[in-house]
Each structure stands twice: as structure tokens, then as C-alpha cells.
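Human:
Focus on the backbone:
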Amino acid sequence: MEIEGLGVGKDFKLYPGGGRPWDWRETDTRHVPGIQPADVEELLDHGARVVVLSRGMELALHVCPETLELLRRRDVRVHFEETRAAVERYNRLAQTEPVGGLFHSTC
């Protein structure tokens, strides 16, 4: 994927006002059990009120139940879908809302 201002990479964290490459090793994220609560905390810390989670091109990346519970407790809307659809949704939402996203470009 190519992200304006960040360059080319395979996984990214994007949040209101910026973003960076997403290094799964920081939170010990794996395809299963999936996206960890710590993965989304950074998005929330940067003001995201809506979160888009990309599950990969083949939907191989899962989302931990604890992550969904964290977002529910914080009253944050969440969308999770295949990467291309997630990118489209993120770009649409970013025009009007403080949105954060985790994007996994492979599997």
C-alpha cells in the first residue's frame, strides 16, 4: 500500500492527523487471535472516534473479542472488512469524522 506522507508498506496505523507503519511485533499481534486492544489504543489516543479495521485481502486477520469490547466501552464505532473495502470506508469517513484505521494489505 502507498500512504500519502508515509510511503509504501504492507501494514499501517492511521489516525487523525497522521499515521505510521504498523509493526505487529509491538503488541504480539498474530492473524489469530487477531488485532489486539493495544493495537487500537494508539488510534484512540490520537482522537479517533470511529475505527476501521482491515482484516486483510483474504480476511485472514481476526479481531480479538477484547478489542471489540474496548471499543464498545469507549463508545467508538468500529467497522471491520476486507482491505480494499476498509480503505474505501476509511477515506470516506475521514472527510467528516475523526477516524483511525489499521490496515493489513496481505492475506
Observations:
- Helices lie at 37-45, 65-73, 83-94.
- The chain is about 30% helix and 25% strand.
- The chain has one domain: 11-104.
